[in-house]
Amino acid sequence: MANKDKLYQYNTQQRWKVFLFLFAALIAAASLFYTDYLVKSLSKSERTKAEVWAMSTRSIVTMPDVDDQFISFVYAVRDSLSIPAIITDEKNNIIFWRDLDPNKTNIKEHLETDTVNKQLTYDPVYFEKQLATMKRNHAPIALHLDTGEKWSVYYRDSNALRQLRIFPYLQLSLIALFLIIAYTVFNSIKKSEQNLVWVGMAKEAAHQLGTPISSLMGWLELVRTKFDAENDSILHEMERDVKRLEIVADRFSKIGSTPTLTNHVVYQVIQDFVQYFRIRTSEKITFEIMGDKSVEAKLNVQLFDWIIENLLKNAVNAIESEGKITINIVDNIAKEEIFIDISDTGNGIPKSNFDTIFQPGFTTRKRGWGLGLSLTKRMVDYHQGQIFVKESEIGKGTTFRIILKSNLRYEPTQV
């Protein structure tokens, strides 16, 4: 029942993450949709301004002699509609423009007649580029003159509209960056607090185990002396189990501390533990250790035994009746790494769980807290190594791979 509660809590957390992600995506979509609506509205408004400006320009060109006051009104209307635009004739020659760079011209005569702006430069390429941009942005507005000529008015979006187009993406990027930083900080604080709680509980458990373990060792010595059973095999195995409890207590006392790593032969360390573990497992499960017997790595033997123990226990639990567990040690000389593959012939793991099985609280067993592989990954990290599911097939078995740094250094052969 407790396992179902933990699995339910884990699934609830996953659902909340999905919900929050979908909610954030909905906000982003709403922001983009509304901004797109504003952009289209402003674009339509600028199109209207461009059409009014084109009509007023046409009126000025074709207007007969009328009241000066009316002419001034038309000029005022045209000049009030600020928008970058270019007018071309039927031969695509630029004959008029507005709201472009005031220091440039595509008409050479302007250089001689312009007495106000002494910095005016002849730059027809600039106007050709602006015209090409305007042609890509919007369809032209046709002007039909009384003389039969046809002019085309091209325009581009104003700076305000162009900035509005990119504003939501900039806004969402800044919000996303802030949320990522905030999530990282708060998640780090949360993990730090959880680590402190786990470290405190582990050290307290080690402290509480100390007294009964010492008492058991004393009782074993008393039984040996009283019944003259110095070489009794049962008492010998009981003593090994009590010493194992001492090791477990010592492991818990060292949680939260930086482990001391010393040089060891990997094959020998694994073989010593498997010999202890094998006689406490069903006879229907066989063990095989193979591979390089001499490769060395820096290990904390107690923590490394714990790593192997957790993986072997998972392998045993995955085998329903009888099967085989294989440990293969390979020295990758080129990468200066050691591969330790632990394979079983158990039920297998779905690919969707390859990463989640290392998360605290995740378990598919009826009993257990789902902390074994999480602790295993952390202890592998202590050894500056990696652990992952190399391969798995439902009904056929699973292979976990541990990667450690080798003490051997590869030196290429000099040619």
UniProtKB/TrEMBL annotation:
Protein name: histidine kinase
Residue ranges constituting the Histidine kinase domain according to the UniProt record: 204-408
UniProt-listed Enzyme Commission number(s): 2.7.13.3
Keyword terms: ATP-binding, Kinase, Membrane, Nucleotide-binding, Phosphoprotein, Transferase, Transmembrane, Transmembrane helix, Two-component regulatory system
Keyword Lipoprotein set for record: no
Keyword tRNA processing: no
Membrane spanning residue stretches: 20-39, 166-186
Molecular-function annotations in GO: kinase activity
Reactions catalysed according to its record: ATP + protein L-histidine = ADP + protein N-phospho-L-histidine
